[in-house]
Automatic annotation (TrEMBL):
It comes from Hibiscus trionum. Pfam families: Acid_phosphat_B (PF03767). Residues 1-24 form the signal peptide. This is Vegetative Storage Protein 3. May function as somatic storage protein during early seedling development. One of its GO terms (molecular function) is nutrient reservoir activity. Keywords: Glycoprotein, Signal, Storage protein. SUPFAM superfamilies: HAD-like (SSF56784). PANTHER family: ACID PHOSPHATASE-LIKE PROTEIN (PTHR31284:SF10).
Length: 264
């Protein structure tokens, strides 16, 4: 049996070890101390960033449904996304997947293999306009928009222009199907050509009889006309789900990002 002095020395060493270990130990979960509010330590900016990234995902996947304006707390997020490298990269990824699919299509000799493109935020970017109009935080002003369209100054989305030209080289017939009005045909055609887009098979705009028709139905009806004309729509590119859904849809649809506005 150990002597009493040895036991005392052992206990002193053990207590000292526990005290030293406790001093170095930092618990993962910290309980609030008395007088300290149990609040999240993240800043409001961090909270907004997380919320807006989630909102962006919901809007792109159509889980958000219809909406008229971006959330006010997301203005900085949308500005940063649209003017930074992420938007450009996301568009490039969509274009690369589109090219990969197009390369698998067995082209027929009848010249009826087609691809459909939307215009705004698909072939052209209206970022200069939206930089002056709150990146989607302002209610849409049709008069201001018409003035912008008439200026024909919207630049091309670089990855879309590359895809467009590549599809032409492959032999696809390109149809440009836009929600712009027929009276904007000349301005739209001019803008597309100035941005580098040429050689489309057809430029389709809303006529007088299309007024009030939801975009999904309008575009579906126009695609149906193409199918009835013997065209095979292999691919369709657009920034809105209304560009891609409905009936007479393409074999593959490719959605470009757009957190600035929604068209149902």
């Amino acid at each position: 049996m150990a002597s009493q002095p040895l036991i005392s020395v052992f206990l002193l060493l053990l207590v000292g070890s526990v005290v030293n270990s406790s001093a170095a130990f930092h618990p993962i979960i910290r309980l609030p101390t008395e007088g300290t509010p149990a609040t999240d330590s993240r800043s409001q900016s961090d909270d907004d960033g997380i919320f807006c990234a989630s909102w962006h995902l919901a809007s792109e996947t159509n889980n958000a449904g219809g909406w008229n304006q971006i959330p006010s707390r997301c203005l900085s997020y949308v500005r940063y996304y649209m003017t930074g490298k992420r938007y450009e990269s996301d568009c490039e990824v969509v274009a690369n997947f589109s090219t990969a699919f197009a390369s698998t299509v067995e082209m027929a000799p009848d010249g009826k293999d087609a691809w459909v493109f939307d215009v705004d935020e698909t072939l052209l970017t209206n970022l200069p306009y939206y930089m002056d109009h709150g990146f989607g935080s302002e209610i849409f002003n049709e008069s201001c928009w018409d003035e912008w369209v008439a200026s024909a100054k919207a630049p091309a989305i670089p990855s879309s222009l590359k895809l467009y030209n590549m599809l032409k080289q492959m032999g696809f017939k390109i149809f440009v199907l836009t929600g712009r009005s027929e009276h904007q045909r000349q301005d739209t055609s001019k803008n597309l050509e100035l941005a580098g887009y040429t050689g489309w098979e057809g430029l389709i705009l809303r006529g007088a009889s299309d007024g009030g028709i939801p975009a999904t139905i309008y575009k579906s009806e126009r695609r149906s006309v193409l199918l009835n004309g013997g065209y095979r729509i292999h691919g369709s590119s657009g920034d809105q789900w209304s560009d891609l859904l409905g009936f007479a849809v393409a074999k593959r649809s490719f959605k470009l990002p757009n957190p600035m506005y929604y068209i149902g």
